[in-house]
């Protein structure tokens, strides 16, 4: 982009402006950033919901694993549309675990002290873990409908019929 500068600023001496520094940076490869975002979201869900026996890198194929250790400005081969059915199965099981753990956490906290989800997760106001799992399903090539159905089944099985109807 072309930056217009006023005449008064042309003769100014000093360090390079932050705009010029930003323009000199290499462009990032956005799909690689999305790939990193998926891993961060998976790791955060594992940590926040205390999921046991989950190996986060098992959710990715060999191309996906190698892309995590590359510079964000490099263009990497990312996983294509065709995935190994075993990896898809592992991904599906992970997302269903996330939904189940979120519902269990919400139900146990409401039974104990009648607190809302926002109060139980104070730093995550508006964070709806089942919805996040459904959004993550798009990136992981798992059916969103399957995740949403599991969420409704979990709500009904935990006696939260009013939320399940919604």
TrEMBL record:
| Span of domain Rab3GAP regulatory subunit C-terminal | 1-166
Q: Which Pfam families match?
A: RAB3GAP2_C (PF14656)
Protein name, per record = RBGPR protein
Q: Which gene encodes it?
A: Rab3gap2
């Amino acid at each position: 982009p072309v930056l217009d500068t006023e005449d008064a600023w042309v003769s100014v001496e000093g360090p390079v402006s932050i705009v010029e520094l930003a323009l000199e940076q290499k462009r990032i490869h956005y799909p690689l950033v999305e790939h990193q975002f998926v891993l961060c979201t998976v790791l955060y869900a594992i940590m926040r919901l205390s999921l046991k026996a989950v190996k986060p890198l098992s959710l990715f194929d060999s191309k996906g694993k190698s892309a995590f250790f590359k510079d964000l400005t490099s263009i990497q081969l990312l996983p294509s549309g065709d995935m190994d059915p075993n990896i898809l199965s592992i991904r599906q099981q992970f997302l269903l675990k996330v939904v189940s753990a979120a519902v269990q956490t919400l139900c146990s906290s409401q039974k104990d002290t009648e607190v809302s989800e926002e109060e139980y997760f104070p730093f995550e106001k508006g964070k709806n873990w089942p919805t996040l799992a459904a959004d993550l399903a798009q990136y992981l090539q798992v059916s969103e409908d399957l995740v949403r159905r599991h969420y409704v089944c979990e709500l009904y099985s935990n006696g939260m019929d009013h939320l399940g109807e919604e």
